[in-house]
Specification:
This protein is of the alpha/beta class. The chain is built from 25 helices and 22 strands.
């Protein structure tokens, strides 16, 4: 308990201290993620049951819940084993039956004495035209009527835990909730009409009608904001710590960048120039840069990253560019080499494949400063990789690199600036949740020379027509990607494999026309197949999604994606981005299998409607949810109990600006509101933030 404020201790105690929870129930709840009273407070009801008093069951239309006062009539025990026990009762308008299975007559007689009045509440159904209530939820003497709320909250249940137990436990946890000072900015509270924390908890656990269960109900919205604010405070603390960590001002003189810009066959877009200016300003500052570069497929991120790396070289330092796979690292090298030649700088590649003398020579040149820009995979993390003067680390394909790897890379040089690039746009809410500690540059314009890609949906039954059309295209000298969902045939799946499709297409097109690339091939074979396709020797490249990112073959103008309905939206958008890079009109054919699910059809239709990666990212989020879009296990994406980052992105933006403003005015959280914010961080178990601020 050391460190945690004393007033919060009861909320972090043992569940068995709560009324009605024994060791076994506590164990069951823990399996569902409820380990302490605090977790119960943030497990809100998801629905409710209308239990308002009625004069008679005739006032509801069965099947429906009714709560009525009745006079207990005759008991009819079951004559045969397995048959129900029935009790006739009468309310103000009609007689009906209470029905019990496997019930003991003596206990029912005690519960429902003939001739007495009772309040019963449960689901009324018609059976052979007679109204009956099977196993009423509540049977009480009229004097205890207040124990049944007019609107009963229904909680998510775990294992064998009943609603009754859960409701009792939640009430016991609520009784432990202390009065706490306010951590939300007063003008925001007033504008939103939010209650204080304790009142909000009581209102969220005691809804009076359906509207109180909405995420937009003031009490729930306030509690969601608390979660988002705690998360954004953690990110803002990490950000201010990065900024406090002394960076090294890196200012280039522009000589190398000007050479490259003058030699380019096209003018960079306004968005590219703006992003380079933002990066240059960060690099020139005293604080370490931590910036996220977001751009759509083909928006020209590589040029922006290279110009940023040149700033480091102009200042007498070095830069490194990291990619998650070797194919991508080699693609970056191929893309950067011609630019590097224009600038007269040395670019080298380091991957896990470098061994022995060759590797040693590269490391020696790197340590001596003879290599200006290093491109590599995670091989650059190895302990013996030392730079003469590393100034900038560019990380591509962010969500395959964890935060820990980001930090490790940053430790390779003193005060290294960090630029992270994503392959496809991330929805705004996820960018805030995942990278809220970083500043954002957005490439929202496409460079000239990229042609729109015509996207068509074609049933897999018409595959022979597709192959026939490809024959004509190949004869005209065009190149084709053909993407399959699997590498090899699988007994458990009807999806086509790359190896099988390659054999079939080779039989149709003849030897030497088709190439094959997938992740299980030896690296040398994979590279050779890619190189033949890039050189135009092979015309059809059959592949799995290994070609999803970074591959650049301007002459390839047709993309066939087999069983497209099995791929995710962002992945399909990525794959489509491999074509449309040259002057030829490009086509993307989405071959789908029948029957199409609603979700599968919707994904394919969105793709046909738009090439805007930002819109596609938002649609993907709406369809799949946050964890799936990034893959929660590797994303470090927080799991909120109340907040919904898909639908409450605007609330997340408030929280980010609020957190940053609070830390700007009170960096040590020492003031009145700062002290309250510390309580919030303890309450929300933001241990990382507590460590950052040194209050633990």
């Amino acid at each position: 308990m050391a460190g945690r404020p004393e007033r919060l201790w009861p909320l972090f105690g043992d569940l068995t201290g709560l009324d009605g929870i024994g060791p076994k129930t506590a164990q069951t709840l823990a399996a569902g993620g409820i380990e302490k009273p605090r977790d119960l407070l943030f497990t809100l009801p998801h629905s409710g049951i209308d239990r308002r008093r009625r004069a008679s069951v005739r006032e509801v239309t069965p099947p429906a819940v009714a709560t009525v006062e009745v006079t207990v009539g005759a008991h009819q025990p079951a004559k045969v084993k397995g048959r129900p026990y029935r009790v006739t009762v009468e309310d103000a308008g009609t007689a009906f039956q209470l029905v019990f299975f496997h019930a003991r007559g003596d206990s029912l007689k005690r519960l429902l004495p003939t001739g007495e009045r009772r309040l019963v509440s449960g689901r009324v159904e018609l059976f052979d035209g007679i109204a009956q209530m099977v196993h009423p939820d509540h049977v009480l003497p009229p004097g205890e009527a207040n124990d049944i709320p007019d609107f009963e909250p229904v909680y998510p249940l775990t294992g064998s835990v009943t609603l009754k137990t859960m409701t009792k436990a939640a009430r016991a946890a609520l009784a432990l909730a202390p009065e706490l000072p306010e951590w939300i900015e007063p003008s925001l509270m007033a504008r939103e009409g939010w209650p204080d924390w304790r009142t909000a908890l009581h209102a969220a656990h005691g809804p009076e009608h359906g509207a109180d269960l909405s995420p937009e109900a003031p009490a729930r919205r306030r509690l969601a904001y608390d979660e988002l604010l705690a998360h954004q405070l953690t990110l803002a603390l990490a950000r201010s710590r990065t900024r406090k960590a002394r960076g090294r001002p890196t200012t280039g003189d522009g000589r190398l960048r000007n050479k490259v810009l003058a030699a380019l066959p096209y003018a960079p877009t306004g968005a590219q120039l703006r992003s380079v200016d933002e990066i240059a300003a960060d690099m020139a500052g005293e604080a370490r840069m931590s910036r996220l570069l977001q751009g759509d497929v083909g928006a020209g991120k590589t040029l922006v990253a290279f110009l940023a790396l040149l700033i480091a070289v102009e200042a007498g330092g070095q830069g490194v560019m990291m990619a998650p796979t070797e194919i991508l690292a080699r693609q970056h090298l191929d893309g950067l080499r011609p630019l590097a030649e224009m600038a007269g700088v040395v670019v080298e590649l380091l991957t896990g494949r470098d061994k022995g003398a060759e590797r040693a020579a590269k490391l020696k040149a790197l340590a001596a400063g003879d290599i200006h820009i290093l491109v590599g995979t995670h091989a650059v993390f190895q302990k013996d990789v030392a730079f003469a003067d590393l100034r900038l680390a560019v990380v591509d394909e962010q969500h395959r690199f964890g935060v820990a790897q980001r930090m490790e890379l940053g430790s390779k040089g003193e005060g290294v600036d960090m630029l992270v690039m994503t392959a496809t746009p991330i929805p705004r809410s996820l960018a805030l949740a995942q990278y809220g500690d970083m500043d954002l540059s957005v490439l929202d314009e496409k460079p000239p020379g990229r042609t729109p890609v015509k996207t068509s949906l074609v049933s897999i039954g018409r595959i022979d027509e597709v192959v026939e059309r490809l024959r004509g295209a190949v004869a005209e000298g065009r190149q084709v990607y053909w993407v399959c969902p699997l590498v090899e045939e699988s007994e458990t799946s009807d999806l086509s494999s790359a190896e099988d499709r390659f054999k079939r297409l080779r039989a149709i097109f003849g030897e030497g026309v088709c190439g094959l690339v997938h992740g299980q091939l030896p690296p040398a074979e994979k590279d050779a197949a890619m190189a033949r396709f890039v050189a135009g020797e092979t015309k059809v490249l059959v592949a799995t999604t290994v070609i999803e990112v970074g591959v650049n073959v301007p002459n390839a103008s047709i993309m066939v994606i087999e069983r497209a309905e099995t791929f995710g939206l962002a992945q399909l958008h990525q794959l489509r981005g491999r074509v449309g890079r040259g002057a030829t009109e490009s086509t993307c054919l989405l071959l789908y299998g029948q029957p199409l699910t609603d979700g599968g059809r919707r994904r394919l239709e969105i793709l046909r409607e738009t090439e805007d990666g930002f819109r596609i990212a938002e649609e993907d989020l709406a369809m799949r949810g946050a964890g799936d879009v990034i893959g929660t296990a590797q994303s470090g994406l927080p799991r909120f109990r109340i907040a919904d980052i898909e639908r409450q992105a605007a609330l997340m933006e408030f929280a980010q600006s609020d957190a940053r403003t609070l830390l700007a005015t009170d960096p040590g959280l020492e003031g009145e509101r700062g002290q309250a914010a510390r309580l919030l961080l303890w309450l929300m178990e933001q241990d990382r933030a507590i460590r950052l601020i040194g209050i633990g």
